Automatic annotation (TrEMBL):
<dbReference type="InterPro" id="IPR036388">
    <property type="entry name" value="WH-like_DNA-bd_sf"/>
</dbReference>
<dbReference type="GO" id="GO:0003700">
    <property type="term" value="F:DNA-binding transcription factor activity"/>
</dbReference>
<dbReference type="Pfam" id="PF00392">
    <property type="entry name" value="GntR"/>
</dbReference>
<dbReference type="GO" id="GO:0008483">
    <property type="term" value="F:transaminase activity"/>
</dbReference>
<dbReference type="InterPro" id="IPR015424">
    <property type="entry name" value="PyrdxlP-dep_Trfase"/>
</dbReference>
<comment type="similarity">
    <text>In the C-terminal section; belongs to the class-I pyridoxal-phosphate-dependent aminotransferase family.</text>
</comment>
<dbReference type="InterPro" id="IPR004839">
    <property type="entry name" value="Aminotransferase_I/II_large"/>
</dbReference>
<keyword id="KW-0805">Transcription regulation</keyword>
<dbReference type="GO" id="GO:0030170">
    <property type="term" value="F:pyridoxal phosphate binding"/>
</dbReference>
<dbReference type="InterPro" id="IPR051446">
    <property type="entry name" value="HTH_trans_reg/aminotransferase"/>
</dbReference>
<dbReference type="InterPro" id="IPR015421">
    <property type="entry name" value="PyrdxlP-dep_Trfase_major"/>
</dbReference>
<keyword id="KW-0032">Aminotransferase</keyword>
<keyword id="KW-0663">Pyridoxal phosphate</keyword>
<dbReference type="GO" id="GO:0003677">
    <property type="term" value="F:DNA binding"/>
</dbReference>
<dbReference type="InterPro" id="IPR036390">
    <property type="entry name" value="WH_DNA-bd_sf"/>
</dbReference>
<keyword id="KW-0808">Transferase</keyword>
<dbReference type="Pfam" id="PF00155">
    <property type="entry name" value="Aminotran_1_2"/>
</dbReference>
Amino acid sequence: MTSRETITGHTAGEIADSVRMLLERGSLRADDALPPVRTLAEQLGVNRNTVVAAYRLLAQAGIVVARGRGGTRIADVAPIASEGMASDTVLRDVGSGNPDPTRIPDPASVLARVAGSPVLYGAPVIDSGLASWAREWFAADASVADEDVHLTVTGGAVDAVERLLAQALTRDDAVALEDPCFLASIHTVRLAGYRAVPVAVDAEGMTVAGLRSALEAGARAVVITPRAQNPTGSSLSQERAAALRTVLADHPYVLVIEDDHFSLLSTQPYRSVIGEGHERWARVRSVSKFLGPDMCLAVTASDATTAERLALRLGSGTTWVSHLLQRLTHALATDEAAASTIAEAREHYADRNAAFAADLTRAGLPCSPGDGLSLWVEVPGTGRAVADALMRRGWLARTGDEFRLSSDEPSRHLRLTVHDLDDDDAALLVRDLAAASSLPPRKV
């Protein structure tokens, strides 16, 4: 900043607005350091607490980040990574996280069954057929009495989680998130201005010590994936789920959101962390993995208060989910041919991931297949270095850095989506991974 382009103001709001103006004019750029609190307070003739409050407003808006001894700096506004296929690339994409389109049930066979009387304003938000099926779907894994379960339908799991957090939190509230974490959850928390509190994940899911620490740090909500955690593929063991329930028992009004995104495709049992008597909870199940990403629908089972608040933004005529889509979901979910396709897909994903993990292990890169659409592969050195080496061999992989909340050190992982590779391409990728990791060649 030049001498004429300095931060001005006498209130926290005025100081924050001044920083925003300098940023918009290009006088401040990403990673520029703002003056220390004491220095700026002296320059402006204000109390130090006023500057602290101004910097807090800017941090809540995502404009600045506090870096300890590195001071308060303008945040890097580079786009956050998102799920899906990479566009405009000649590389073979093994980082997409997509289901196999050939293993998604064809809706054509049931489309004629979903036509019915038009739905008008004032109709129930959730279609009766879908509600009946969903209630049975949730009942098998219920940890609370059926009469205490209330259903809400949203435009997908991400939509559900965003609305659930919005009805319970305000800006700067702390949210416990798995680390590494699903990309959409990172987006949701950051863009809403909540504080993400990272909770480590191991082979048995969210760690007990990590959850306890997050709650002690004031987390008002917890987002957890009971099985097929993305990106690690881990699922809660029975012992881990019980231990997490014990921790949460002392915090009955903390909102617990269980995101069961893989649901019907999972090979693992559903183990809930929602204990009997927990007051604020929600269990979200999307259909996008087994019926396709274009089927933007999820059903949430929750306590009455959460359901009531969630439904406020889902009234007829505002943001309801199309009843045609609901009826199509119900028709496919109860169709024998579609059920067979889903079962075959579940077996396919598990078998292909297990075979690839075994080949990697034989090549000198120990790997556990976990559950889900992708594999979480630990590599020597950094994931970025191995991914760069893979690019030179024609592959596009995702590094673990994209999924990290705490990034003091570079990730040593890659997330690979390999279930659609044939045997020859899978063997080639294993060899290229070994070479990119500077491992001596082995027979795969």
